[in-house]
Every structure is written in structure tokens, then in C-alpha cells.
Amino acid sequence: MKLRCILRPQRYVGAVPERILEVVAADAGQRLDVLLRRHHPALGRAAIRRLIEAGQARLCGRTARAGTAVQTGDRIVLRDWPDDARALPDPALGLSVVHQDASLLVVDKPAAMDCHPLRPGEVGTLAGALLAHDPGLAQVGDRREAGLIHRLDRDTSGLLLVARDARTFAALRADLAAGRIDKRYLALCPGRPRLPACHRAELRARGPRVTVRSEPFAGSLPITTELLGLEPHGDHSLVSVRAPFARRHQIRAHLAFLGHPIVGDRAYGGDTERLPNRHFLHASELRLTHPESGRPLHLRSALPPELQVCIGAC
Fold first, then answer.
1. Among residues 32, 56, 82, which one ends one of the domains?
2. Which of 2, 37, 142, 239 is deepest in the core (most CB within 10 A)?
3. Residue 293: strand, helix, or coil
4. CA distance 123 to 193
């Protein structure tokens, strides 16, 4: 006797009947599964693929393949997807505001803080502190991120840009995608990198670490990391870095690839004796054109005390 196997869509506890996403310019050209992975970081790639194949993600009213490239303005309807993490107001957290006006905020994130939650009910994130400061941010951009235009790794400190309304969010995300937002970082590395230099390579972001190579390889994307200047500190250098389209771990992995791993960076071979509890990467400057006034905005953040102590010990 032959048995017939019927594949049914996987159901998740706490599934939401329907949710709608609209693709912004900064995400145009991404694969559907990659975009949905960003919005649902707690789900694995395989789970997202199963949901798409089961027809639980409709792109512009039609079923789509995982590899379909999305375009600006596309409407994605998610049916019976898990109720993923969302930011919750966390008034117990402090928030360092560097700039604030009716359209945007610039905040200074400390190390040891995630930008947004990865699991339902998670607290202690920058997004939670932002919502406590301005509850209206819950309606701006992704509901996990409370208006954040870009992100920093958990142990990277420094400046982050936040939109306070949907119009500003769309404008700043478009500026970010076009490379019009100048983000600069300070990193402490061994040796003396060759400066000034513009280094190009290929990066693939899979798993907890990313891979950087000099030539294109399967799944890689091109990256550019600019080394602008340095201050010698013993056998180390405090390097000023710019990455116009900084991908996940780009500066950390690229500097390690160049033979200058960041101090304290366990993932990419940095010296952890000098800085055991975090890595020495700080988002020190933001330069942009204000989306409403059209005026230039240039903001700086000083090195946190623990990084100043680390330099003094070199």
C-alpha cells in the first residue's frame, strides 16, 4: 500500500494572522528571504524558507520564491508568521542624547547593549530606551528598532541616528543607501596600517562571524573600508576609519584581514588582555545633511572612559 505524504505549513505558537511590510529604497534589490531574515532575526534561514514556500509570504499579492529581489514600494503580506520580537519601553535604562529636534535624534550607545531585541519580551536594549524617551518611535520603521536608521554591534559604542517620523525615516534610509551619511569610527589596532588607504574586498555574512577575502567568492558582496589617519600609541595605532556602507562586522573583520585585528575583539583575533570586556571600536562621528532643513549636521562622541584607559596603558 502506498502512503501519501501531505506537507502542511508549519505553525508557530503566538502566530500573527497578518502583518504587512513595505519595502523602502534602502532595501531595494535584496532577496525576499534575506529581507525577512532581517525582520525576523530569531528565525533561522530554513524556517523562513519553509514559510515562504508554504505561501505565507505574498509579494505584491502573489506567492514568491525565496530568492526573488524586492523593489521599492513592494508590499509583503505575512500570514500566520510568528509574533517576533518587538521593542518595549524600558524606562529603567538611561539614554545619552547628543542631538534632538522635531525630525531626528542622535544618541550615544554604550558598549554591552544590543541595539534591538532578538526575542519576544527582551529588555535592556537601546530600542527600549528610545521608546521610553519617545513613545511615538514605536510607529517609525521596524517595530523592533524604534526608528533606528543604522545599528552597531553589541560591544561597539558610539553615535546612532534615529528618525522620529516616517518621512524622515524614508529620507535618511535613502541617504544611507546612497552613501550620503558619513559615519566615522575609532579603532585601536596593533602595528601601523598604511595610510591614507582605501581598501576594497569581498565579505560574506553567514553565521556568527563574517568572512573577508580579496576576490569575489560564493555569496560575497563588495566592501570598501577607508583608513583616514592614525595616532601612534606605543606599538599600537588609534585608527580613524570610514565605511560608507558598513555591513555586519565589516570594520572588525576587514582590519583583521589586513593584519590589524582590533584590540579586545575575540571573534577576529584581537588581543583581549588589554581590553577583556569589549572591543576597541567606537562610532565617533556622524556627518549628514538634515532631511528637513537641508543644513549640514556634524556630531562627535568622545571615547568612553574604559577606552581612554586602554590607550593610556599602551
1. 82
2. 239
3. coil
4. 39
d(CA 280, CA 252): 10
* Placement of cell 538634515 in the chain: 290
For residue range 141-165, list pLDDT tens digits in order.
888 889 999 999 999 999 999 999 9
- Amino acid, single-letter form, for residue 247: R
DSSP conformation class of 180: -
Closest CA to 214 of 244, 254, 246, 182: 254
Number of domains in the chain: 3
* Burial class (CB within 10 angstroms; exposed 0-12, middle 13-18, buried 19+) of 299: middle
Active-site amino acid positions: 153
CA–CA distance, 134 with 50 (Å, rounded to integer)? 37
Range of the domain at 27: 15-82
Nearest to 111 by CA among 280, 272, 250: 280
Contacts of 274 (CB under 8 A, 6+ apart): 263, 264, 310, 313, 314
